[in-house]
């Protein structure tokens, strides 16, 4: 199966993301970072058996805002991330970038 995006055919999202005429390396890195971050947030919430509503009650962040964040329909403020991550036992940090080995 393939999909037509703006007149061009792509078989997978990976095909589209690999097309540097459509998605720059910086945009790709940002998308990958956000996807990984939100994935970890969801996993941490679910590992503790919490619903979005439970997390909302614990943090003061409204449940619809958590739903938008988890579905990647909105980009969270850093302060919101701290509010959500803290009761889950996580924090944000800046670490040195590691270079991937060339194959």
Largest sheet: 2 strands, antiparallel
Q: What is the annotated CATH architecture of the domain at 24-88? A: Orthogonal Bundle
Can you identify the CATH class of the domain at 24-88?
Answer: Mainly Alpha
Q: First CA to last CA: what distance?
A: 29 Å
Class by SSE composition: mainly alpha
H-E string = EEHHHHH
Give average pLDDT, whole number: 88
Q: Count the E strands.
A: 2
Radius of gyration: 17 Å
The CATH superfamily of the domain at 24-88 is lambda repressor-like DNA-binding domains
> Order of strands across the biggest sheet?
1-2
Helix fraction by DSSP (H/I, runs of at least 4) = 40-55%
Proportion of strand residues: 5-15%
SS element count, helices: 5
CATH topology group of the domain at 24-88 = 434 Repressor (Amino-terminal Domain)
The 3D shape can be described as globular
